[in-house]
Structures are given as structure tokens and as C-alpha cells.
Amino acid sequence: MAYGMGNQPVIVLKEGTERSKDKEAQYNNIAAARAVADAVRSTLGPKGMDKMLVDSMGDVIITNDGVTILKEIDVQHPAAKMVVEVAKTQDTECGDGTTSAVVLAGELLKRSEDLIEQNIHPTVITNGFKLAAAKAKEILNDIAIDVENNDEILIKVSNTAMTGKSVGGQKEKLSAIAVAAVRAVADENGVDVDNIKVEKKVGGTIAETELVTGIVIDKQRVHPRMPKKVKDAKIALLSTAMEIKKTEVDAQINISDPNAMSAFLQEEENTLKGMVDKVKESGANVVFCQKGVDDLVQHYMAKQGIFCIRRMKQSDMEKMARATGSKIVGNLQEMSADDLGFAEVVEERTVGDEEMTFVTGCKNPKAVSIIIRGGTEHVLDEVERSMHDAIRVISISIEDGKVVAGGGAPEIELNLRLSDYASSVGGREQLAIEAFADAMESIPWTLGKNAGLDGIDVIIALKHAHEQKGGTVFGIDLNTGKAADMVKLNVLEPLRVKTQAISSAAEVANMILRIDDVIASRRAPPTDPMSDPSMGGMMGGMPGGMM
Ligand code: ADP
Ligand code: MG
């Protein structure tokens, strides 16, 4: 609070505003951010534990996926929210490495706290962190392994991303499918994962999950007399209904003359028939309609040998447009042959005990679908999540052409090389770079700890291995507790998962460290007027409040 002339306090902030400054603000923010890291730490690695999350409706989620956990728990504190954002960024950029990113951010902040206590200014710390993050990227690039055209490597990357997930037993099979799917859609511009359509069908086993070159739609034709299979399909995509529009208001049409009645019905029928004529005229023999299709229209289309699906999902319409080269038409009257797409075959096939529609031999050969099979919805969802992660890690490995060993190997290498780098920089920044280097140890330490090993022993073993020739790829073998060649153990991760985790962890740590003043207006007033007014303020909910 500032004081004006005559020692009268000058009031600039609204009454009830809460404020914390300098070290107090920094410590508060760091504590909140670290609490987020603490919430996910125990899930890291293949031996990590699961969390059971119960929402306010009583629904239960069991997961060990960092970003899923953080999305579900209701984090209040602004600094904690910033860390949750890191996990989300990591997820959108890489599809993996969310827990690692958050653990690293927590660790960087913990080390910063020690530095602040030693009176090192936050600006010095953030400068040091920036230098270290840039150097870390260089080091990772240097130790990365080239993918080239080796699908074996990609399968290993996918398997590593799936370890610890409940799909465990089938990961080889799922990885092979994911690699084939990504290879099918990859080109010189990278991988557009939107070209891969994932469908789920209850029944069968995970092992029956299959890859289809083309698009699979979880729907069957509208009329049993329509052909089950159309070769040389000319495909129309309609975003409007093939029905007579019902009037918005409840209009009543009074017809007294029976002739007028039949004329009216006749006219309706003509309109509907006209729609089918229009389709026929365009040359289409397959119609995917996003809205409803009148019974009469179905009947006429069946007579004309046209295959039709109604109530297509918007996303399926878009996928179909890309795959077959057709345009989505909003007005049937304006549709022409130019709007149609092409596929060699459109057919209905039985999957499990339900019908699905397969569109194969598409104009765009990049369109592929994966049909996930499994006993229950719950299993399907879990496989789908793993499949999405696998597709992402494979894609970014292909795009960058580089992977790194896992199991804490890159983090130990970073620790060693960044420590050398620190002494070459010197000055006060050196301390921050050293802290950054030390923070890297938190990954192998936590991996070991979660597997019931002693963290210190793990670090010592790994450092020893890394000092030997060819030791760069040595990480922790969680079954033996010994340092081991992670390439031989098939533990590989995309380079980008590591670079992204480190850069976003450093970024959020720096953002939090630069804040020296937190001014928060009071949230909703307490409902009970007798309650302590100091409760329920900004700090009231942290850090325990987030759990
Ligand atoms: P994240 O959300 O960060 O991906 P995970 O729980 O998936 O968290 O754990 C990833 C970490 O586990 C990485 O450091 C990875 O190298 C390591 N890891 C995965 N599989 C193994 C394994 N078989 N042995 C040792 N470490 C492994
Ligand atoms: Mg992972």
C-alpha cells in the first residue's frame, strides 16, 4: 500500500482485492504449479500407477494418461492452470509425453525456488533456463537416431507409447496397423492424420482390429432393396434433406374437394420423384445424405439401383469428400456430374453382427480406416485412445525423421552435457543452467521410483553408463534396475516428444518466474455472511484445493 502526503494511505485497489508480491507471489505460484506435477508424477512410465478420477456426477475414469488426469481435475490456481496448459500443448503437438512435460516443469520450478532463496534474481534464472533449453534442443538433435525408411523403428516407437496402457498384450498388432495407416497417408508435406478414420465396433477381440484402404462408415443402406454392392461408384454428397420440408408453423391445409386432395398428394409425390430424377440425371449411383430421406425417395432410389445412406455425420461427409473427390452439395437442384466423387466399390459388409458400409478404391488412395474391435465399449475407448497416440507418435517420427532412446537415456545425457555447458557460460546464469541440468534427472529418477527402485541408485548407474563409450542410449531397465541399451530393449520415442516437453516446461517455468505481483479481485462473495471473509479468496483453493 502506498502512502500519500500526511501518511494517508492511497487506496488504488478495490476493497477485498487480494495481493501478493515478490517472493511471496513467486513461492505461492511455484507451490501451486508443483502441486500439479505431484498429482501426475506417480503415473510416469510403464510401471506407473493409475489414477481413479470421480467427477461430480459420480462417473469414474481410471487412467494413467497425464493429460486426461489434468483435464478431469478442476484446477483453480492460475499458476497451476498454466501447467495444465503445458500438458494440453504437449498433447496437441505430440500426442505423448504429457506427464514428462509436467514433471519437468515442476522440477524446474522446485530448483528455481532454491535459487530465489539464494537471492538469485528471477530474471537471471529465466535467462539461464532459456540458454539451457536452446542447448538441450541441440544436444537432443545430436544424439537422435535416424528413422530413414525403417518401419521396425516406427513400430518400436508406437509400442513404447503404448506401454503401460491396458492394451498391453495386443500392442504389436495395433502398432503394425498404426504404422501401415500412417505410411499410407504420409507424403512429402508430412502426415495429415485426418486422413485416417477410426471406427469402433463392439464384438470380437482387439486382435481382430483391421486396417481398410478406404472409408468405413458405421451405417447401413436405408432400404433393403437397394443394391448391397455398387461397383464404379459415382458418389453424391448431399447436405440437405431428401424430404418435403415440414412447415415451421403448424399450418393447416383445408381441402374440401377429394380431387384437390389427390392432386395435392400427387404433387408431393412428383416433387419427391423429381429429387430421384435429379440424382439419376447427375449420373450418381451412390448418395450419402447428411439429413433425412423420405420413404418414397428411398423406394424410387431402390428401383433405380441407387445405394443410399442417410443421416451421415458431418465429419464423415468431409472425410468422404476428401477421399472420393466429391463436393458436398447443399441444393440438389444445382447438382451436376462435376460434383460427384469416385470409388471402385461401395458395399455393405457385416462386421460382428452389424452392417457397415465400406468405400474402397477411392479416388484419393490416401484415405484409410481402422476398425477397432473389442469386447466392450470401455475396451474400445481405451484402444481408440492408444491408437490415436500411436498414430501421432508415428507421424511425428516420420515428419522429423528422428527418434531418441527412452527410459531416461536422453535426460541423463542432457544432464551431463548441460552441466559442461554451464561451466562454459559462467556467471550467475551458470547456476540456473546447472539447476536446469539437474532437473533432467527427475525423469529417470521418477521412472525408477515408480518401479520400486531407488532413485539415487538409478541416477548413479545411468551416469556411469553414459560416461562409457556408446553409453548415450543407456536408460533404466525397469525389470532389473540396471542401466541397459534402450535401443536393444526397443524403447524408442520421437525426438519431438522430448524437445517439445523440454521447451514447454522451460517456457511455463519462465512465465511463472517472471510474475512478481498477483492481484486478484475477490471471487463470488461467501454465501454465509458470518463466514470468515479471508476464506474463499484467491489462495483459499490452493494448492490442496485442486485435488
Ligand atoms: P508421458 O505422459 O510423459 O508419455 P508415460 O507414462 O508414457 O508418460 O512414460 C513415458 C516415459 O516412460 C518415457 O520416459 C519413456 O522413455 C519411458 N518408458 C517407456 N517404456 C519404457 C520401458 N520399457 N523401459 C523404460 N522406460 C520406459
Ligand atoms: Mg507416454
Can you put this structure into words, describing what you see?
The relative contact order is 0.19. The radius of gyration is 30 Å and the shape is elongated. The model is unreliable at 529-547 (pLDDT under 50). The chain folds into 2 domains: 15-146 and 405-520, Orthogonal Bundle (GROEL, domain 1), CATH 1.10.560; 214-248 and 257-364, GroEL (3-Layer(bba) Sandwich). Helix 1 packs antiparallel against helix 4 and helix 12 (409-425) packs across helix 15. The longest helix has 25 residues, at 258-282. The chain has helices at 22-41, 66-72, 78-94, 98-117, 122-143, 151-162, 171-185, 258-282, 295-303, 314-324, 377-400, 409-425, 429-440, 442-450, 455-467, 495-513, and strands at residues 2-3, 9-10, 18-21, 51-54, 60-63, 145-146, 186-187, 190-191, 196-202, 210-212, 214-217, 229-238, 286-289, 307-309, 328-329, 341-351, 354-362, 368-374, 402-405, 474-477, 482-485, 492-494, 517-520. Strands 11, 12, 13, 14, 15, 16 and 17 form a 7-stranded mixed β-sheet that branches. A 3-stranded antiparallel β-sheet has the order 6-19-22, sandwiched between helices. It contains 16 helices and 23 strands. By secondary structure, the chain is of the alpha+beta class. The site of adenosine-5'-diphosphate has 23 residues, from helix 4, helix 14 and strand 20.
